[in-house]
């Protein structure tokens, strides 16, 4: 039997990149998937390609109203939600002296506040379902230092995951964080950064960057009943970078 048979999942930021890989893998594993993103054209195209077990809802993840709409659409189309993958996020690589207050607040809203809103809105649906698994996508920079703003928010996701896991345990809801290293998404391997990424890969113990599908495999495990005793934990997928 497919590992996610009978699961209803919401995956944010799933129009492209890692989120799209997650959506494809979830449908292949038997889940019914609500894909969300601001990119309506790409999101709708992928949902159409994936067939009757996927729908697309345009969403601004920083909006509580949009979150309520997404959960309502999920329940109306597929039933109560079992799985939430908080995947949407942005990067920023500026020094603290160059970062404006507006830029800082934006990355906090998208990378951190959205995770809070998602968990807060989805947990009541999971209570209806009788169980749930929340997977919050943090980063290697949720464990070790990186750029200001990005590092801060990814550490916050790690902390929120642990706090929510303690509360969610009372409802049969598990909450874990995933910490990817360098992943071969279009944003990472575009022409102007490709050579830099290839050079950096030589310093990764496994000597390569990861494919998005390798992260998807980890997320499927956490969404499935195979990880039924895992909650409040960090799952690192970085080729050994953080072990050095």
From TrEMBL:
Keywords, ordered alphabetically: Oxidoreductase
GO molecular function: oxidoreductase activity
Alphabetical list of InterPro entries matching this protein: NAD(P)-bd_dom_sf (IPR036291), SDR_fam (IPR002347)
TM helices/strands, residue ranges: none
Cited SUPFAM superfamilies: NAD(P)-binding Rossmann-fold domains (SSF51735)
Keyword Oxidoreductase annotated: yes
One Pfam family it belongs to: adh_short_C2
Protein's UniProt keywords contain Heme: no
GO BP term, pick one: bile acid metabolic process
Family: Belongs to the short-chain dehydrogenases/reductases (SDR) family.
Protein name: 3-alpha-hydroxysteroid dehydrogenase
């Amino acid at each position: 039997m497919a590992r996610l048979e009978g699961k209803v999942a919401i995956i944010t930021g799933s129009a492209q990149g890692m989120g799209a890989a997650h959506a494809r893998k979830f449908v292949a594993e038997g889940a019914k998937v609500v894909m969300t993103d601001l990119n309506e054209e790409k999101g709708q195209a992928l949902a159409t390609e994936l067939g009757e077990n996927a729908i697309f809802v345009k969403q601004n993840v920083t909006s509580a109203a949009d979150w309520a709409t997404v959960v309502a659409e999920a329940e109306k189309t597929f039933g109560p939600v079992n799985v939430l993958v908080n995947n949407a996020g942005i990067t920023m690589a500026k020094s603290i002296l160059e970062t404006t207050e507006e830029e800082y607040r934006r990355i906090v809203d998208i990378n951190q506040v959205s995770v809070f809103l998602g968990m807060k809105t989805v947990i009541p649906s999971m209570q209806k379902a009788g169980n749930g698994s929340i997977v919050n996508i943090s980063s290697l920079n949720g464990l070790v230092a990186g750029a200001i703003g990005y590092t801060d928010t990814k550490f916050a996701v790690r902390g929120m995951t642990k706090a929510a896991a303690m509360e969610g345990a009372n409802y049969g809801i598990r909450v874990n964080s995933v910490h990817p290293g360098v992943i071969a998404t279009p944003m990472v391997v575009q022409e102007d950064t490709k050579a830099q990424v290839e050079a950096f890969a030589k310093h990764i113990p496994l000597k390569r960057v990861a494919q998005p599908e390798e992260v998807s495999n980890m997320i499927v495990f956490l969404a499935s009943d195979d990880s039924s005793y895992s909650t409040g934990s960090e799952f690192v997928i970085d080729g050994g970078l953080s072990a050095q």
